[in-house]
Amino acid sequence: MEFYSVLEKRRTIRDFSDREVDDGVLKRILNAALKAPSNDHLHQLEFVVVRGRDRILPLIETVAENTKAIQQTGLEAGKAAMDADELDMFVDALPKQQRMLMQSGCLVLPFFRQIGCPLCQPADQSSLNYFASAWAAMENIFLAATAEGLACAFRIPISDERARVKKLVGAPEDYELPCFLAVGYAAEDAYIPKQKVISIEDRIHENTW
């Protein structure tokens, strides 16, 4: 797929079919993460791939409960603060947080090693390089999945989810889990949120704002 077509087609999909992801395809997608810019050029990424809903469920069984509080308070607050397109996406996304991670049958747990600066406790702007490196890698995975005809959805861990998953999979203490990542084939009736149309001409300022 041509590069700019990949950019146009890249979407967060939260409805998956039961079609299995081939090992070779998954390796290509995850290898794309190692091509992203990386803090100190270290590429300190490791992946735990969990296949099968029976294996995935124990890792995400607290997700639905943790999301419920956000769903109850966030939707009401969102109605006042969000535009129609943003609220539409929010309404679709929240109830699917646990289901989307299990439905694809392929849960990827990316772990990013921290050296000196905790990923979630940056001391200054420079220490955000670790956080930026992790998300540059995740975006490469999304783009590679799109190029392969697959879809992705991620969830950022909240509450006890990160520590719980690290313990269950035996991840080293100095590795952080930036997100849960579902990789799979989109369902035929997958919901696709409306994308905002933004003119780049309106966003480029010559010499001054």
Residue stretches low in confidence (pLDDT < 50, at least 5 long) are: none
Our measurement of the CA-to-CA distance between the termini, rounded to an integer number of angstroms, reads 36 Å
Main pleated sheet: 5 strands, antiparallel
Morphology call: globular
SS strand fraction: 5-15%
Number of strands: 5
How many H/I helices?
Answer: 8
Which structural class is indicated by helix and strand composition? alpha+beta
Whole-number mean pLDDT: 88
Please provide a written account of the structure:
With 209 residues, the chain is of the alpha+beta class. The protein has helices spanning 3-9, 23-31, 53-60, 63-81, 84-93, 97-103, 129-147, 161-169, and strands spanning 45-51, 106-113, 151-155, 175-176, 180-184. Strands 1, 2, 3, 4 and 5 form a five-stranded antiparallel β-sheet that branches. The termini are far apart. The model has no long low-confidence stretch (mean pLDDT 88).
Entry keywords:
5-stranded antiparallel beta sheet; single chain; about 210 residues; alpha+beta
List the helices and strands and how they pair.
Blueprint: H1 3-9, H2 23-31, E1 45-51, H3 53-60, H4 63-81, H5 84-93, H6 97-103, E2 106-113, H7 129-147, E3 151-155, H8 161-169, E4 175-176, E5 180-184
Helix pairs in contact: 1-7, 2-7, 3-6
